[in-house]
Automatic annotation (TrEMBL):
Domain Carbohydrate kinase PfkB: residue ranges: 132-238
Protein name: Nucleoside 2-deoxyribosyltransferase
Organism, scientific name: Solilutibacter silvestris
Lineage of source species: Bacteria, Pseudomonadati, Pseudomonadota, Gammaproteobacteria, Lysobacterales
Keyword Transferase: yes
Molecular function (Gene Ontology), one example: transferase activity
InterPro entries the UniProt entry points to: Nucleoside_deoxyribTrfase, PfkB_dom, Ribokinase-like
Keywords: Transferase
Keyword Oxidoreductase: no
Length: 390
C-alpha cells in the first residue's frame, strides 16, 4: 500500500529475473493462472528466461500495508500436484500451494516457512550437493533447537540432519553465518539509505545459488556476494548485472561487541498519537521494532494520556533511560520536536521518519546530525542498525 506497488512475482519469479540479469540461463518452474501467465510471458521475452509452468485457476495473493507488515494472503483452496524438476542446478523455494520434487546435481533450498519449514528430502527430493539458505528462525524450527543453542552449532547439526554440504543462516544486522567443511564463517550485512524489504531474502538465495552452483565460487564468497546483491536490491528495487555487482561496494553494517553478546538496546518511540491514523503508525512502529529484538519505550503504550504534570516527567525519564530515539515527524508535533531536542542534548542517536515534511521544518534535525529517512521501513531498519552499533 505504501509505497504503492503491485506486481506478479513470488520468490522464484524474482530469482529467475535476478539470474537472468546476471547473465545466467534459467528456467522458471511454477504454477500460473492465465492472467499471470500473460504477465510472466512478457517478462520472459524481455529478460531472457524460460518458463515451465503448470496451469492453475487460483492465484496466491499477498497484501502488505507496508514492507514490514504481517501480510494478508490468499491461497488455493486445495493443494496442487507437486512440481517435478530434474536438472543439474536447481534453486528450490518452499511454496504455499504445493511442493517441488527436485532431482539435481547441485541444489539450493530456501524453505520460506518460519513455523513449519519443510526438510529438503521430505518429499523425495535428492541432490549430490545441497546448500540450505534459511533465516535463524527457520533454522531453529527445522532443527527444533532451543534458543540457547549457538547458531554455529545449529548450522553444524542442520548440515548433519539434512545431509547438506553448506548451511547459510541469515542473521539480520550481523549478516550471515556460513557453515562449510566443518567451519563457521560470518559474512557482513551491508547498509543502504533505502530499504525495499519485500523479496530481499529471495534476492539473497538467488545470488548465492548462482555464485555457488553456476560460478562455483567458495560458499563464503558466494554468501558475501549474495549479501551485497541484497543491499543493491534494497537500495534500488532492482536486480544487478554481474558488472554492477562487481563494482558495488556498500559499507558493512557495524555491529558492536555488546550486540554480538546479546545486549539489546532500548528505543524511545516519539510521535503524535492524537488521531487513529497517528496511533496506527506508532503501533506499527512499536511492533516492528520489537520484532527486530529491540526494547521499546512508547509514551502512548507505557505512560498513556494524562495531565502534563503527570506525563512529562515520565516521558523525560523514558528518554534518559533509552539508548536512541526514533521520531515520527510528519505533522511537526510540538511534543515530538521537544523529545528530539532533549535526546540530542543528551547525546543519544536520533532517527527521524519524515515522509511529508518540508525541508524548512526538518532544518534543525538535518543540521544537528539526525539520521533522516523518508519511508517507514527504511526508518525502522536504520533504527535497528544504529542500535546494533552501540
Amino acid at each position: 500500500m505504501r509505497p504503492n506497488w503491485d506486481e506478479f512475482y513470488g520468490s522464484a519469479g524474482r530469482a529467475v529475473s535476478a539470474v537472468a540479469k546476471l547473465g545466467g540461463q534459467a528456467a522458471l518452474h511454477c504454477y500460473l493462472t492465465p492472467t499471470a501467465k500473460d504477465v510472466i510471458d512478457a517478462r520472459k521475452t524481455a529478460e531472457g528466461f524460460v518458463v515451465r509452468d503448470s496451469v492453475t485457476i487460483e492465484n496466491i495473493s499477498f497484501y502488505y500495508e507496508h514492507g514490514l507488515a504481517r501480510p494478508k494472503f490468499w491461497r488455493p483452496t486445495s493443494q496442487l500436484s507437486p512440481l517435478q524438476v530434474k536438472d543439474d542446478l536447481v534453486l528450490r523455494y518452499g511454496m504455499l500451494e504445493s511442493t517441488a520434487v527436485v532431482n539435481a546435481d547441485y541444489a539450493v533450498f530456501d524453505p520460506q516457512n518460519v513455523d513449519m519449514p519443510e526438510s529438503f528430502h521430505h518429499n523425495g527430493s535428492t541432490a549430490n550437493h545441497l546448500a540450505l539458505v534459511l533465516n535463524r528462525y527457520e533454522a531453529r524450527a527445522l532443527l527444533r533447537a532451543a534458543e540457547s543453542l549457538p547458531l554455529d552449532q545449529v548450522a553444524q547439526q542442520l548440515a548433519q540432519q539434512e545431509r547438506a554440504e553448506v548451511v547459510v543462516i541469515k542473521c539480520g544486522p550481523q549478516g550471515a553465518l556460513v557453515w562449510h567443511s566443518g567451519k563457521a564463517t560470518q559474512v557482513p550485512a551491508y547498509e543502504t539509505t533505502k530499504v525495499w524489504k519485500i523479496g530481499s531474502g529471495d534476492q539473497f538465495a538467488a545470488n548465492f545459488a548462482y555464485a555457488w552452483m553456476e560460478e562455483r565460487r567458495d560458499p563464503v564468497e558466494a554468501a558475501d556476494r549474495a549479501s551485497r546483491a541484497t543491499a543493491f536490491y534494497c537500495q534500488h528495487l532492482g536486480f544487478p548485472t554481474a558488472a554492477e555487482l562487481d563494482n558495488y561496494k556498500p559499507d558493512p553494517i557495524l555491529v558492536s561487541g555488546d550486540y554480538k553478546n546479546g545486549v539489546r538496546r532500548k528505543v524511545y518511540l516519539a510521535g503524535p498519537f492524537f488521531t487513529l491514523g497517528e496511533l496506527w503508525v506508532v503501533d506499527q512502529a512499536r511492533r516492528s521494532l520489537l520484532d527486530m529484538g529491540l526494547d521499546v519505550f512508547s509514551p502512548y503504550h507505557d505512560v498513556g494520556p494524562g495531565d502534563a504534570a503527570d506525563v512529562v516527567p515520565k516521558d523525560i525519564e523514558g528518554i534518559r533511560d533509552c539508548d536512541l530515539l526514533l521520531a515520527i515527524m510528519d505533522g511537526s508535533d510540538a511534543g515530538t520536536v521537544f523529545e528530539v531536542g532533549f535526546a540530542y542534548r543528551d547525546g543519544k542517536p536520533v532517527i527521524v521518519y519524515a515522509e511529508n515534511e518540508t525541508a524548512e521544518n526538518c532544518k534543525m534535525m538535518v543540521g544537528s546530525g539526525c539520521f533522516m529517512r523518508q519511508d517507514f521501513v527504511s526508518a525502522i531498519y536504520k533504527t535497528g542498525w544504529v542500535a546494533a552499533s552501540l
